[in-house]
Design a protein that fits this description.
The complex is a heterodimer of chains A (287) and B (286).
Chain A lengths: L1 E12 L7 E7 L2 E3 L3 E5 L6 H8 L7 E6 L2 E2 L4 H10 E4 L12 H11 L4 H14 L16 H13 L5 E5 L7 H18 L2 E5 L3 H7 L2 E6 L2 E7 H5 L2 H6 L6 H11 L11 H14 L4
Chain B lengths: L4 E10 L14 E9 L3 E6 L5 H8 L7 E6 L2 E2 L6 H7 E4 L12 H11 L4 H14 L15 H13 L5 E5 L7 H16 L4 E5 L3 H4 L4 E6 L2 E6 L1 H5 L2 H6 L6 H11 L11 H11 L4
Parallel strand pairs in B: 3-8, 3-9, 6-7, 7-8
Antiparallel strand pairs in B: 1-2, 1-4, 4-5, 9-10
The chains are: A alpha/beta (287), B alpha/beta (286).
């Protein structure tokens, strides 16, 4: 059964003013438990607006969001429980650190859930472990950490609530390649070991191709595609038209295909491309 | 005059201040010497916290060195009396376009700098128009700046810098917050300023494919310069780059792997175009 479902979800900013803007329109998606969904779309396509609906942060102008089959706005109590079950981590979350120690910052969510001190402690330690924050760092002020560390602490703050659905809005923006890989591995690890559903908004086609099982492509507030990685990236031309792209490696193979050569184009990693091209070169007798 | 330096970092160190009683921070820049040649197009790579942004801030006296000297066209940035001239010569564009837009209408935003220079009205008008044309945002001159896309905002921020007619621009991760289209728009603009307008360009980036397009790459690690050379020279050191949290472009990686397996590709392929061309060559399809 779907853990999250939207039905005719529409959101309009500044309704009733001259600045009225339809941010998302008639979104119907259904996300299964344990799935890893990548959301891509150009700036202003409605990605962030959409994810802010999934934990009840924004209330739809019209339409419904279901969590576990139930309207998340059906009662105040249910909305509150959804906030803990669907953890949302914003863009540049390190700007939201505020406590005097890393420990307290990560503990903020579990505290609000009304857990006992002991449970809070367990949650904090588990979350810190997931993001690779060492025990001795928990005493430090979050403001004394490096950019990459702060980012991980902020993500730990969401993970500490142990949400069933973890949503991250551009978790790797502004990080160096190693930082990007560390965060991507961490998220994957969280999903695998807890069985949680993960939704990641990203500008990196490479990251999405690498980890997602399904890709949601947003364009002008509407769903352009919502299907498997291969199906989405086989629409290279359309993706470019709407301000996106295919992973670099896929682009190379598509260039060769466009020249009339028989190579697979549903490939996203260097290793896969290598074996495909070796096969191709052998076939052509140049190897 | 061809080899004239526009910015010289002469044995520069910099340490950020902490409040009293706190432990001193390590050097953000540790005895760095680096000359930026007039007309050059330089990429600076380095992991988070390696000192890249500090270099950009030192370049036009937003901060001044703890030790050593930064010299812009012969002017020492330690001399406060010169900071006005120095900032007219070297402009800096930052990562987040939202923090750099000051006015609600695009052309007013671009006019902000020249107005502060006290230029005559006609000159301001001309500079605003020229700058917006240079970044392909002229058609948007009457638009509200907060309604633009990220890539458009960043190009308006760049126009605001160009309107000051700087000879050199430092870009501090200008594409970090942008989608693929916005990234391309901004990088195309950066290269255009260098090639068509002769502006010296230095850009800091975390994207290896963007760095591959520069004439020269400087790699920073732990507050020092680790590598300095052409993209081809720098990306030969893939193991060293990986050890400091960086990488080589995916195309370069693939080409390298294929060569190892005996495919007869040329050395130092860095971009998608170079890769495809080399493969077509190999197949005799050229």
């Amino acid at each position: 059964m779907a853990i999250i479902e939207t039905q005719n979800l529409t959101y309009v900013y500044s309704e009733g003013t001259p600045f009225r803007k339809v941010a998302i329109e008639d979104i119907n998606i259904s996300i299964e438990e344990g799935e890893f969904v990548g959301i891509i779309g150009h700036t202003g396509s409605g990605k962030s607006t959409l994810v802010q609906h999934l934990n009840g942060l924004l209330k739809p102008t019209s339409g419904t969001i279901l969590y576990d089959g139930k309207d998340i706005h059906s009662s105040k109590e249910f909305t509150r429980s959804v906030r803990f079950n669907v953890g949302l981590c914003f863009q540049y979350p390190e700007y939201q650190l505020f406590e005097s120690s890393v420990y307290k910052d990560i503990a903020f969510g579990p505290q609000n859930m009304g857990l006992s001190e002991e449970e809070i402690n367990e949650h904090v330690l588990r979350a810190a472990d997931f993001v690779g924050i060492k025990k001795e760092m928990l005493k430090k002020s979050p403001f004394d950490l490096s950019g990459g560390e702060k980012r991980r602490v902020a993500i730990a703050g969401v993970i500490a609530m142990e949400p069933k659905v973890l949503i991250l809005d551009e978790p790797t923006a502004g990080l160096d390649p190693k930082g990007r890989d560390t965060i991507a591995d961490m998220i994957d690890n969280y999903r695998k070991s807890t069985g949680s559903t993960v939704i990641v908004v990203s500008h990196s086609m490479e990251d999405v191709a690498k980890s997602a099982s399904k890709v949601l492509v947003m364009n002008k507030g509407q769903v352009e595609f919502f299907t498997g990685v291969k199906e989405v990236f086989s629409n290279a031309q359309r993706l470019v038209e709407i301000g996106l792209n295919v992973p670099q490696i896929t682009g190379i193979l598509m260039d060769l295909k466009a020249k009339g050569y028989n190579v697979r184009t549903d490939i996203y990693s260097v290793d896969e491309a290598k074996s495909e091209l070796l096969r191709f070169f052998k076939e052509r007798g140049v190897l | 005059m061809k080899n004239e330096n526009i910015v010289e970092f002469q044995n520069v160190s910099f340490r950020y201040d902490v409040s009293e009683g706190e432990e001193q921070l390590p050097l953000a820049i540790n005895h760095v010497s680096l000359n930026i040649k007039k007309g050059d197009c330089v990429a600076i790579l380095g992991h988070n916290g390696s000192g890249k942004s500090t270099l950009a801030k030192l370049s036009n006296s937003i901060i001044t060195p703890t030790e050593g000297k930064v010299v812009v066209k012969g002017m020492d940035t330690n001399n406060e009396a010169l900071s006005y001239e120095i900032r007219k010569t070297v402009g800096v564009v930052f990562q987040n376009p939202d923090n750099q837009i000051v006015a609600s209408i695009v052309e007013e935003d671009v006019a902000f700098g020249p107005e502060n220079l006290g230029l005559p009205r006609e000159e301001i008008r001309k500079r605003v128009d020229d700058s917006l044309k240079a970044v392909d945002m002229y058609d948007y001159r009457h638009h509200e700046s907060h309604k633009l896309s990220g890539g458009q905002k960043q190009r308006v921020a760049i126009a605001g810098i160009i309107a000051m007619r700087p000879e050199c621009i430092f870009f501090d991760e200008p594409t970090a917050m942008l989608d693929p289209k916005g990234r391309k728009e901004v990088m195309d603009t950066v290269f255009k300023l260098n090639r068509e307008y002769g502006i010296t360009v230095v850009y800091i980036t975390h994207f290896m494919d963007e760095a591959a397009l520069a004439n020269r790459i400087v790699v920073m690690d732990k507050a020092e310069i680790l590598l300095d050379g052409t993209p081809k020279e720098v990306f030969e050191n893939s193991d060293l780059l990986k050890s400091v949290g960086l990488d080589i472009p995916q195309c370069a990686q693939l080409a390298k792997e294929l060569k190892k397996s005996g495919v007869n590709l040329p050395d130092n392929i860095l971009t998608r175009e170079e890769f495809t061309d080399s493969v077509l060559n190999l197949l005799g399809d050229k």
